[in-house]
Fold:
Amino acid sequence: MTGFTYRNGVLCADSVSLSVLADQIGTPFYVYSETRLRENYAAFYEPLKDLNPLIAYAVKANPNLAVLRVLAACGAGADATGAGEIERAAEAGIDPRKIIFSGVGKTREEIAAALKLGVLQFNCESLPEIEALSAVAQSLNLVAPIALRVNPNIAARTHYKLATGEMGVKFGIDAVQLPDAMALIRRLPALAFKGFQVHVGTHLFDYGNFRDSYAKLAEMVRFWRGEGFSIERLDLGGGVGIPYDGQTQAPFAEYAAIVHETVGDLGCELAFEPGRRLVGDAGVLVSRVVYDKRGASKRFLILDAGMNDLIRPAMYEARHGILPVKESAAEAEAADVVGPICETSDLFGEAYLLPGVDQGDLVAIQQGGAYASAMSSNYNGRALVPEILVSEDTFRIVRRRISVREQMGWEEA
Ligand code: LLP
Structure:
């Protein structure tokens, strides 16, 4: 039994009961299913494997070392934003030659460290960054493998805070400036041009966005080959969405077909940078109901997990599924499911229908594997949530709870 399913009336991660975990660990906590992680990797890899893809997992989605180790063992590389994520990926045993260094603000120190480590490529996003990469590589007597992240000016159909491929956002080199960037690469020393990257947004449900951007990429490859550039690699970014609460999504095979159709015949190595698609549904946040507050106009289920633990609902109006840990045949009763934080936006579900959940009961907030623990904070004097990795019928605490007492030790007073 893999992922999150009910067994004998109790929600389990693989075959470990979340209720037993809650008793042993205390709430709230994140729990990840190792088998689900492996399944997700295989589901992404298999339909693309004839293209011999590099699946460079977007570390930012969930940088826990244990999660990274599971994906590394599957064969994943890493897409890293910043030296810290490179350090984590390397620590988890990911070969530097499978690490892609992304990000709009790489410092010279970060560039130097990544060059010395020997990462696969630097995805550059601006003209001054190209200059910095060349200068640092030259000073170290090294050659930097460079790719350009292109902003293809495509309006991704997703939440506006998650769109990254339109003119006017900070990401990528605007397509109209590509000739300047290519001329610079030709002119500057210590650079080895590898190819292009696009990433037009995250949580894309509409695969049409990929078709449009990959088709533009293919056009660029043909054009720049004509100008004498050898282009050996294309990085197709991340962004594949997953169903959140009550959503349905076209099968992944459609995405894979678009890849084959648009860039499959260019003779380029292909890299992908999926984050959410690999880890999103492989985790849940388990929390206990502290109070069942029946206000004059509304019922609130007040949880012991808050927006500091899972900020996506507050930040992107994201709607994660919420499940009772104890299966119930009772009629569902609506409640606003909220956290304890002093913010009105600390709201996980509005008028959410939950059967048989009372004060003291446990709930699991779904799709808690991506951008969940990774974006958590200690706001409102909170401990940092523990993370558990379940594998079949065993579990491991892969990050312990970081108490407020311990956090105070970080400060000088
Ligand atoms: N590659 C690049 C260059 C990216 O910027 C991102 C995500 C990815 C890959 C991975 O995208 P994915 O496959 O996970 O969609 N905090 C937001 C998501 C921000 C994603 C930022 N970049 C959220 O909670 O939805």
Summary: Residues 58, 61, 79, 102, 162, 199, 202-203, 237-240, 273-277, 312, 316, 371 surround LLP (CB under 6 Å). The longest helix spans residues 208-226. The chain has a mean pLDDT of 96.
